[in-house]
């Protein structure tokens, strides 16, 4: 193994249903204001839409805005917030060698076009020919570009000029954690100095609700905190954009940039989710992290999404660990690939403020420790993937 | 013996390739593919998988040999990915059945619900008036789909189960550069010392009416449907677009010393990778070629070699007017006067554009070129483009001394990757 370098988080860009920028989300959490959700627009499903955003602030050209669908706009916007927070916006020399790892799923569909085609197909004499004809006339070329996962990265390159290496990891919660893990490892090993990591999700769409209804359990009818959604649980999908800027400490120091935190350890693994396997993986990861913590000043931010059995399994292990716990999903909903990076951002805010936010739901355990200096962020995927990450204040 | 680590000129651990597997429209496995590739055969055929009524493009490089009726793109992609991995792992002799000692990096197409599922849901819903998504949602719980059928991580998870790779499998997509990005991630992980081996692959079995139409609407596809095998003509003056295709390829990457220590046959060396993003346009390259140039130069620098050390270029060579023009600008800038003398050929002339798999498929073909000292041709080269004065190895394979080669992959969205590969050092 080559010598490892320290990796800092030097920028955070967050867009959640609680507002724009890390401070907007943090202050809502800190006050313990009621969660913000919509139970009407996609009834009976409950979702966490983003508030209206003034795209012009981060995506100045209307032509660029038109070339994207909402999830890409959220991502490009949040990426801009993170670059700005890190102080590298407009710095062409730095951006030219800023690397990028994005976590993203597939893009968005034109729900109206799909519905019209499905309606027409029922009466079509030749369904194959009808489908071809309608797809040829109804699909917008720009929509295809919005469906390509790597086009979030492409749009960030175009709008913000991030021009180093570019990789897009596909799919679900583990992708967000692995994006941060590999970005961290690349910097630690000297393969990169500066990397923009994050993603975006638009959960306020009928097409993703259908995908989740076929595979998991989207939250319906009645809102409840993540920990208290009953035996089958439920996921409240969200609009979300979240990015962090990771940087070698030497590079950050040289340009006078301060850190939110250092990333000290990231564990990422998988199992087949047979009974007890989530717990076993998390316990094994915990033994790696336990040696690095100071129990008087550490807490856990849980990324649990509310789907069972994953959420209950995670909570069992968190109770064994016995540290203070706060979940964010009750407030910001679930942004799938984006969730881990959003939670990493919120953990940065907690370290900056030196405390946890208000508890909500029966799994939020304990009191905020004094002078909070370390946070463990959990990432248990709805279907696959378990992970723990430790970040700590740099003093 | 910590000092005994073999390092390249740049001080990196040396990365060997000890196993390769490939499947394309030409056939299943290295032997079949290589024979047809060097014979100048085309795998492009008229599409039979779905009706082509009303389509401007009715041809593709489908892998029908491994396709069964009703397979979803996820199932078909996974099937091909498995075959490629089996072949690669068997050649490497690494690990034991069900345990590959290293991580998995999979270039996978994005997956979603497809029309057959959507149509079936609509039938179950039997809405009286218009069919809305809310109708599909109403009956979705009855549909009884197993989790993950449309989920972007399903293929990586299933491969990780099947081959017993270590850790969290990485599924990734950088459009047409995906396969090369997967190989790059594997190389980086071994160089970091995280592992001694990695399984890197690209697979794409997502030929559907909608995927074809999407590319067609971007005017990216050849419409010269007749005869199908003549449609893909990279670097020719009459080129008019690429041919959408399927395929998969896997490589076992391994620390050189690790491979030597266990007596494995090293089939080639992955010397370096380069990357450079393009911010010009969502589907077009920067007209000055700078990102492509920087990508190739980054790769050569990463490998610690110069343009004069390259004997062959495995082109991205899609057969679109734009790509081939830009690739020529890039190559002629990086290689200067030598550009006209270095053989450059496009596998896509025979197998079409395998999109997510292309970077991996073409890396395997490049390694086979090094192994066999024989360069596959660019077929369908009958009308030279005077604006592209390159030695494209027209129509007929050529025996040549090839010690080092590069393989280019340039993606929609501006993600460019170049790989540098060499023969095993004597």
Could you tell me the radius of gyration of chain A in angstroms? 21 Å
Shape of chain B: globular
* Count of β-strands of chain B: 15
Total helical elements of chain B: 12
Mean pLDDT of chain A: 96
- Averaged pLDDT of chain B, please? 94
By CATH, the architecture of chain B is named 3-Layer(aba) Sandwich
* First and last CA, distance of chain A: 27 Å
Superfamily (CATH H level) name of the largest domain in chain A: Thiolase/Chalcone synthase
Radius of gyration based on Cα positions of chain B:
21 Å
Give the tally of structural domains of chain B.
1
- Total domain count of chain A: 3
What count of helical segments of chain A does DSSP give?
15
Counting helices, strands and paired strands, the structural category of chain A is: alpha/beta
Helix content of chain A: 25-40%
CATH evolutionary superfamily of chain B? Thiolase/Chalcone synthase
Uncertain runs of chain A are none
Following the backbone from N to C, one meets helices and strands of chain B in this order, namely EEHEEHEHHHEHEHEHEHEHEHHEEEE
Q: State the CATH class of chain B.
A: Alpha Beta
Q: Give the helix/strand class of chain B.
A: alpha/beta
CATH topology of the largest domain in chain A: Peroxisomal Thiolase, Chain A, domain 1
């Amino acid at each position: 193994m080559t010598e490892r370098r320290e990796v800092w988080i030097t920028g955070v860009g967050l867009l959640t249903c609680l507002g724009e920028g890390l401070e907007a989300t943090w202050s809502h959490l800190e006050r313990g204001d009621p969660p913000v959700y919509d139970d009407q627009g996609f009834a009976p499903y409950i979702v966490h839409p983003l508030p209206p955003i003034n795209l012009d602030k981060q995506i100045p050209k209307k032509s660029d805005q038109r070339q994207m669908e909402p999830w890409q706009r959220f991502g490009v916007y949040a990426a801009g917030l993170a670059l700005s927070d890190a102080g590298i916006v407009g710095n062409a020399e730095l951006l030219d060698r800023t690397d990028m790892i994005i976590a993203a799923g597939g893009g968005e569909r034109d729900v109206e076009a799909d519905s019209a085609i499905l309606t027409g197909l029922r009466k079509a004499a030749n369904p194959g020919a009808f489908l071809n004809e309608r797809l040829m006339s109804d699909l917008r070329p720009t929509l295809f570009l919005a469906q390509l996962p790597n086009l979030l990265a492409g749009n960030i390159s175009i709008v913000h000029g991030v021009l180093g290496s570019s990789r897009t990891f596909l799919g679900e919660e583990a992708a967000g954690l692995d994006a941060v893990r590999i970005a961290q490892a690349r910097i630690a090993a000297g393969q990169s100095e500066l990397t923009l990591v994050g993603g975006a999700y638009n959960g306020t769409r009928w097409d993703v609700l259908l995908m989740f209804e076929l595979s998991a359990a989207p939250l319906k009818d009645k809102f409840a905190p993540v920990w208290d959604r009953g035996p089958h649980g439920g996921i409240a999908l969200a609009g979300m954009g979240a990015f962090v800027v990771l940087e070698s400490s030497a590079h950050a120091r040289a340009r006078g940039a301060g850190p939110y935190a250092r990333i000290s350890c990231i564990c990422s693994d998988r199992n087949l989710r047979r009974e007890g396997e989530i717990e076993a993986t998390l316990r094994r990861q915990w033994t790696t992290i336990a040696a690095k913590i100071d129990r008087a000043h550490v807490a856990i931010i849980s990324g649990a999404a509310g789907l069972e059995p994953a959420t209950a399994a995670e909570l069992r292990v968190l109770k064994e660990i016995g540290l203070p716990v706060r979940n964010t999903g009750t407030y910001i909903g679930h942004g799938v690939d984006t969730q881990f990076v959003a939670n990493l951002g919120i953990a940065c805010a907690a370290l900056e403020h030196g405390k946890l936010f208000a508890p909500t739901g029966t799994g939020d355990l304990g009191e905020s420790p004094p002078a909070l200096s370390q946070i463990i962020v959990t990432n248990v995927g709805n279907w696959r993937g378990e992970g723990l990450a430790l970040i700590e204040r740099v003093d | 013996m910590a000092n005994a680590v073999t390092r390249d000129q740049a001080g990196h651990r040396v990365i060997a390739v000890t196993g390769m597997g490939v499947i394309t429209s030409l056939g299943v496995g290295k032997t079949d593919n290589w024979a047809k590739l060097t014979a100048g055969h085309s795998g492009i055929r008229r599409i039979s998988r779905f009706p082509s009524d009303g389509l401007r493009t009715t041809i593709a490089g489908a892998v029908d040999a491994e396709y069964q009726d009703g397979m979803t793109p996820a199932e078909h992609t996974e099937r091909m990915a498995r075959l490629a991995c089996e072949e690669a792992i068997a050649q490497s002799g690494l690990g034991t059945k069900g345990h590959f000692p290293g991580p998995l990096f999979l270039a996978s197409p994005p997956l979603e619900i497809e029309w057959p599922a959507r149509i079936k849901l609509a039938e179950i819903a039997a809405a009286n008036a218009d069919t809305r998504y809310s109708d599909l949602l109403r009956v979705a719980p009855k549909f009884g789909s197993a989790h993950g059928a449309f989920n972007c991580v399903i293929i990586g998870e299933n491969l990780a189960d099947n081959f017993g790779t270590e850790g969290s499998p990485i599924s990734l997509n950088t459009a047409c550069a995906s396969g090369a990005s997967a190989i790059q991630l594997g190389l980086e992980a071994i160089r970091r010392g995280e592992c001694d081996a990695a399984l890197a692959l690209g697979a794409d079995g997502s030929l559907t009416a909608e995927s074809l139409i999407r590319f067609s609407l971007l005017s990216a596809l050849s419409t010269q449907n007749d005869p199908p095998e003549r449609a893909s003509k990279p670097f020719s003056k009459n080129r008019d677009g690429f041919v959408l295709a399927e395929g998969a390829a896997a490589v076992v990457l391994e620390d050189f010393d690790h491979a030597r220590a266990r007596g494995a046959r090293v089939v080639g060396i992955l010397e370096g990778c380069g990357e450079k993003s393009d911010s010009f346009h969502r589907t077009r390259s920067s007209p000055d070629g700078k990102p492509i140039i920087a990508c190739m130069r980054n790769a050569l620098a990463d490998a610690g070699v110069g343009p004069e050390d390259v004997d062959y270029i495995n082109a991205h060579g899609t057969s679109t007017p734009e790509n081939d023009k830009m690739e020529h600008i890039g190559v002629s800038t990086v290689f200067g006067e030598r550009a006209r003398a270095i053989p450059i050929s496009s596998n896509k002339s025979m197998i079409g554009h395998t999109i997510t798999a292309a970077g991996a498929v073409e890396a395997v073909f490049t390694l086979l070129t090094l192994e066999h000292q024989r360069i596959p041709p660019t077929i369908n080269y009958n009308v030279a483009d005077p604006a592209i004065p390159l030695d494209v190895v027209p129509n007929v394979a050529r025996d040549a001394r090839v010690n080092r080669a590069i393989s280019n992959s340039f993606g929609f969205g501006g993600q460019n990757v170049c790989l540098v590969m060499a023969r095993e050092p004597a």
